[in-house]
Design a protein that fits this description.
The structure is a homodimer. Chain A contains 12 helices and 16 strands. Chain A is α+β, with helices and mostly antiparallel strands. The first copy, chain A, folds into 3 domains: 183 residues, BirA Bifunctional Protein, domain 2; 88 residues, no CATH class; 50 residues. In chain A, a hairpin with a 3-residue loop joins β11 and β12. In chain A, α1 packs antiparallel against α5 and α5 runs parallel beside α10. At the A-B interface, α1, β1, β2, β3 and β4 of A face α1, β1, β2, β3 and β4 of B. Chains A, B: Homodimer. Chains A, B: InterPro entries: aa-tRNA-synth_II (IPR006195), aa-tRNA-synth_II/BPL/LPL (IPR045864), HisRS-like_core (IPR041715), HisRS/HisZ (IPR004516). Chains A, B: GO terms for molecular function: glycosyltransferase activity; histidine-tRNA ligase activity. Chains A, B: This is Histidine--tRNA ligase.
Chain lengths: 371, 371
């Protein structure tokens, strides 16, 4: 038996009503929650010049779905990420807007290749960026907004895993110098490879591997390890960020986690939903390049809710509020039902059937009756 | 002076908060109105195989922004239209769903080239498709749903211009045979070229050019012209379709209008907003190919609201409901304000200023006070 040719390219798919409507409900809830915190929505285009999406970064450029634009004769790419576009908006069109500048977004992003864990090449990205500050107060706000948005969309309780992307640099440039480049040390700590640390002559860093896990316990380990106090400010910052969300999320710490935080400055976090293996969001502090020689500080987060929607997030049974309107029904009564939140399904011919068309009710002479 | 290089390719643009949020409000209103009529939302992907988007139709394929997919090694294209994708869904994934099948959609489409009238290459398309029937009842429903959706989004009053795409064929194959191909005759009628009609020996069609304009008057002309009654069913159909929307839209008729209706079967309509030159939507009856030798009847409409949003549709002044939260504010009070529909903007430092951040109010010890 030969397989029928696929109707859609690998990694691209149609969303049928149950999923498309759940996606719409989840997106609305997330965006409304971010807007309630003063984040104005922006919508960058689906495609841009390759340079503005990937810059000189080979890793990013490799991941772009590129094509030649017949109009500009230049290489464009579909956006693999919206955060970078929001940074471009903040430092160009909105360069003159007062800071801190709060922006949010929701839209589809497209990746060149799928991963085994995430077969989708097109996915929904929703997020918020606070531009003009990466202070502790800014980081605390962005984490709180993330939790509020997740809550509003019915996502959770989540686990927030904090990280400190510059912790190794602070130590290596301070009390614990090493003979190898900092990046090498960071890599082995990220891989949690105790043997490699010993081989690098970085045994002093071994206790860092224990400062991982439930937040309070890991913070205590980190504090005990940091005998010189070079990490004091970072530890205090994490505690300040964690304070308003204690009890609303499970908090963990992995101070040397680097994977996915290559662009973060001093603070990062990942969001997990227990029982859902893959990460559903991440965020942190970063710097937006402004021209050749300037940067603007920012904090933000991105959410990728598709896998949760596939598992039923945002779903609701519509049949209960779906009513069949027989031939010759009163148009004004039908309009009244819609205004009351009913979905009406009008008969077009005698052949139309209420139940086949998904209606739990039909409009009788005295109002809705069960179908 | 040299011009700075453009940040974005021609025809692609960023939407800042005022427009992005207006777009979101307009989209929600349109989709909610269509869903209230029982139309389930679907979301096809942004890109597909070129064949499923353009088929063998050269005119369509020329308009596609194409690229080679490194994964499938095949040519993909960005969707220039969502209607065709919905037809594909209806006849593949939803081939077994009961008919009539009601689907709606909202999403971005991308065109290869902009037109002078519409410089945008990426635009919002919102619409509804009723699949499994192109009866008069189906056409009447789809026009009513369009008017309800436009109303809900605050668009209008609109002008609906009806057309009858097969009227010339009915006449030429019936009482008014011509020596030239029907397409040639249709072309000259579409161009309203009386001289050309005379040259084609088609003087008998001249009165059709007068059956154009305000609906009732044009219908009367058409009826007077149709002495053999071959157009009776079409005229009755138009009157049935027009009946429920009289008083809600300005109705006109241009029975030989073909431009933009190449795919429509017996019925089409264009939607205009007075003072906005370009068409903002169109619809009609059509046939979806199913395999090699079968078709499924459908009616539907598509709206392109971007130009209206650019002119202020869906806008509202948020400053009135935007409140500044000074340092040290009570988090529970802030959450209460958000629950009441306020947008809160929290101070991150002493430097933050309520009015600079767009807040009409600030939270005082006794509640909101004008900023």
């Amino acid at each position: 038996m030969t397989k029928a040719p696929a109707l859609l390219p690998e990694g691209l798919r149609d969303r049928l009503p149950a999923q498309a409507e759940a996606t719409s409900r989840v997106t609305r809830a997330l965006v409304d929650a971010m807007r309630a915190h003063g984040y104005g929505r922006v919508s960058p285009p689906l495609a841009e010049f390759r340079e503005t999406l990937g810059g000189d970064d080979d890793r990013l450029t490799r991941d772009l779905l590129r094509f030649t634009d017949p109009v500009s004769q230049r290489t464009l790419a579909l956006r693999p990420d919206i955060t970078r576009q929001v940074g471009r908006i903040a430092t160009s069109l909105l360069a003159g807007a007062p800071r801190p500048l709060r922006l949010c977004y929701a839209g589809q992003v497209v990746k060149l290749r799928a991963s085994q864990l995430r077969p989708a090449r097109e996915m929904l990205q929703v997020g918020a960026e606070l531009i003009g500050s990466d202070s502790v107060a800014a980081a605390r706000e962005i984490v709180t907004v993330a939790i509020d948005a997740l809550d509003a969309a019915g996502i959770g309780p989540v686990t927030i895993d904090f990280t400190l992307p510059d912790v190794v640099e602070l130590l290596a440039n301070g009390p614990l110098p090493v003979a190898v480049p900092v990046e090498e040390l960071q890599g082995e700590l990220d891989a949690k490879d105790a043997g490699a640390l010993a081989r690098l002559g970085a045994e002093a860093y071994l206790p860092l591997l224990r400062a991982t896990g439930p937040f309070d316990q890991a913070i205590a380990e980190l504090r005990a390890f940091d005998t010189t106090g070079v990490l004091d400010a970072r530890i205090e910052a994490l505690e300040a960020i964690a304070a308003p969300i204690r009890g609303r999320a499970t908090l963990t710490l992995d101070p040397t986690e680097r994977h996915g935080f290559a662009y973060q400055s001093w603070f990062g976090f990942s969001i997990f939903v227990p029982g859902q293996g893959d990460i559903i969001g991440r965020g942190g502090s970063y710097a937006i390049p402004v021209g050749e020689d300037r940067e603007e500080a920012a904090v933000g987060f991105s959410l990728y809710p598709d896998p949760l929607i596939d598992e039923g997030l945002g779903g609701e049974d519509d049949a209960e509020r779906r009513i069949f309107l027989p031939l010759g029904h009163d148009a004004a009564i039908a309009a009244g039902l819609r205004a009351d939140g009913w979905q009406t399904v009008a008969a077009l011919s005698d052949a139309d059937d209420a139940r086949a068309l998904g209606c739990g009710f039909t409009l009788g002479p005295d109002g809705p009756v069960e179908a």
